[in-house]
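Now for today's protein.

===
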Amino acid sequence: MKKHEAAPLTARQMDILRLILQGLTNQEIADSIDLSRRTVEVHRYNLMQRLGVRNVAQLFRRVFELRLLPKTVLLREKRTLSA
């Protein structure tokens, strides 16, 4: 797999990704989508492994590089974080 490629994400991983980009904690994500915190941790770990990143800063960069979410979603998440 090349540097700018990633394995496709599952629908659940995309959900988790959107919530991470909103700045939610694992517990907040779990509460919002009715999962256990541990299940969210596993999804988050698998998501980050697929994208080849080790932290949220790298995750943001990778999402931009791969254009995983529409630009409008990314801009909305950025506004949410800066508020």
Q: What stands out?
A: The chain has a mean pLDDT of 84. The helical segments are 11-21, 26-33, 37-51, 56-66, 71-82. The chain has one domain: 11-82. Residues 11-82 form a domain with the Arc Repressor Mutant, subunit A fold (CATH 1.10.10.10).
